[in-house]
Amino acid sequence: MPKSFKLVEPHGAEAAPSTSAQPATETDWSLCFICQETTPESLTSPSQNTRQDKGSSYSILAGHLRRFNELGLLPISFLLSRLDEGSGVEASLGANNARYYKTCRLRYNKTKLDRAEKRHLKIGADEEEEVVARKRTRYKSRHRPLYTWTAHGISAFQVYSGLWLRPSSTETKHQEVKCFFCGEAPGSAGLHEAATFQLDSRVRSCALILDDMDLLTQLNAGDMVAQEAKYHRNCLLNLYNRARKIKEMADKNKDDEHAIAGLVFAELVVFIEEAHMDDETSPVFKLADLAQLYTSRMEQLGVKHEGRVHTTRLKQRLLAHFPNMCAQHQLRDVLLAFNEDLGDALAKACELDRDLNAVHLARAAKL
Asked: Out of 2.60.40, 1.20.120, 1.10.10, 3.40.1000, which CATH number does the structure's domain 4-15+251-366 have?
């Protein structure tokens, strides 16, 4: 007995909404208090140490974590505040017999901290060298000789005029200068002057990442070197750190979208397999309905598509996963069916044609 064909409607598939991952605000002390993950690696607890200064390990590690946090080098998912239960980080670690993986501990050891501080200080040293190079260039430009043309050729060089050096105007300009980023006066920290185009290029890229319209407006007036921009070193570091965090979050969100897309495709495959397991019907799927189901499930999981889902790529992924499935075009629709069901479909179509011919003959006999 041939099976009956039924067009499978995907609207019956329901999906539970998901929640976006957020950094943990509480610590599970039974896990590694740094990564809060479960791995095959064994946990280490300084409280089990036989030495008398058991608390020194917690104190050293807490100091390193605080310094990494001040430099802005802790991961976004690691909130240092969750380790403080009100009496300080060291006291909380000791009171809860905090444990950690050795690999996590090595990420925040003394060697890594020293290297991070050297990189932090190197930025300031490079900026000071840039300022010195800029001053040398200006000194040479101010003291270069000026030649004049006469009837007998080039005259002897003239000493630079007072137009090049005007102490009164320089002092006035120095009093009016402000930080390029915060707009504040130099203060005790002083200001550094932009002297390279690499600095201007990096500041522009950070402004684009942060979508800082005020900073972009200032940069549209010209590069920082031409504007003779001056800035606080801490303001520049703060700009770099904020742009780095936003970029890390964007990369993480992109990875999450790829993971969610894979999960939704797997759910779509399970939906098709369950429909194919029914022995009484031969399922036929509309590609447009499957694409709509895919889109709605992605939106439920927090991923919104700006445009339509690329149905051709979705069809190719499904055909690659189901080698025994084929795609058939019916006007503007694309129908997906399994190869083993095509024989029954053709037999039933031929049977309907014979019945239709018999009806036509019966009507013709009555005439």
From this structure: 1.10.10
